[in-house]
Amino acid sequence: MGATLIDLPVISDPRGDLTFMEGMRHVPFSIKRVYFLYNVPVDAERGGHAHKQLEQVVFALSGSFRVKTDDGRTQGEYWLRNPRRGLHISRLVWREIDSFSQGAVCMVLASEYYDEADYYRSYSEFLKAAERAQ
């Protein structure tokens, strides 16, 4: 379906938990970009696009939110609320993020540098590309 959950390692002791990730080891690509979404209004929607080549892993570092995915054939819905669990989203997967809790922080690891030409921002154009790729 183009989206899978990834559990990261944790080291726990009385001082708290430490979670780490390494590209090509815990994340299935070399990490070229990291960005955060925060101060998102609880009724806001983010995403609303797909990528031609880029892959991502999305984490809820704090709070929670929903990620809806669509690969052109199958739709999925994932609630992220554990900072140790990320959602790997492959290329050619439409994603929408909503239902942000108050104070939610979303971190995204990306396989490529930002390139506007890599985006499908039209759902109908995405569906045509997804159909061609099948």
UniProtKB/TrEMBL annotation:
SUPFAM superfamilies in the record: RmlC-like cupins
InterPro entries for the chain: QdtA_cupin_dom (IPR008894), RmlC-like_jellyroll (IPR014710), RmlC_Cupin_sf (IPR011051)
A family per Pfam: FdtA
Domain Sugar 3,4-ketoisomerase QdtA cupin residues, every copy: 2-130
Protein name from the UniProt record: Sugar 3,4-ketoisomerase QdtA cupin domain-containing protein
Organism: Terrihabitans soli
Source organism phylogeny: Bacteria, Pseudomonadati, Pseudomonadota, Alphaproteobacteria, Hyphomicrobiales
